[in-house]
Amino acid sequence: MDMDDEMDKLSREALARLATIDEDERRQLGYILTLLADCYGKGAKRMAVLVFRRGPEDLGIMGVNTNDMEAADMVREAADVMNFALTRDAPAKEMFN
After folding, report:
1. DSSP β-bridge partners for residue 49
2. H or E element: which one contains 6?
3. For the CA atoms of the chain, what is the radius of gyration?
4. Could you give the C-alpha distances from 94 to 9, 20, 84, 89, in angstroms and in order?
5. Which of 14, 17, 46, 89 has the most CB atoms in a 10 Å sphere around its CB?
6. How far apart are the C-alpha atoms of 50 and 28, rounded to whole Å?
7. Residues 70, 47: contact at Cβ < 8 Å?
8. 61: which residues sit within 8 A by CB, 6+ positions away?
9. For the chain, what is the mean pLDDT?
10. Distance CA 88, CA 8 (A)
């Protein structure tokens, strides 16, 4: 199967799945697609996408318009921000757990 055929097949499969999603899921997907689209073309931004589904084969970091090291740095920064946000209002003893 050549690349065009493979992309056509993947597109058809994705469109079939998208036909079954509800309005909230469509809104969320639209937001994600907008963020991804910002990473291509003139004035492109950089993005790191963390892929995690329950199972070791579905874990990864994908850089969009960036290299693997920059993507890893972005994920590390995001982890620091999340840690701060989650512990900001926590009691002092929770800060050390």
Report:
1. 62
2. helix 3-18
3. 18
4. 49, 42, 12, 10
5. 46
6. 16
7. no
8. 48, 49, 50, 51, 68, 71, 72, 75
9. 84
10. 47
Among the listed residues 54, 36, 55, 59, the one whose alpha carbon sits nearest the alpha carbon of residue 46: 36
pLDDT digit string, tens, across residues 19-47 = 999 999 999 999 999 998 999 888 899 88
**Residue pointed to by tokens 């970091």:** 61
Residue type, 66: T
Give the C-alpha separation, 30 to 47, whole Å: 16
Longest dimension (CA), the chain: 58
Mean pLDDT of 60-65: 83
Task: Quote the pLDDT of residue 63.
Answer: 86
pLDDT at 69 over 60: yes
> What is the pTM assigned to this prediction?
0.59
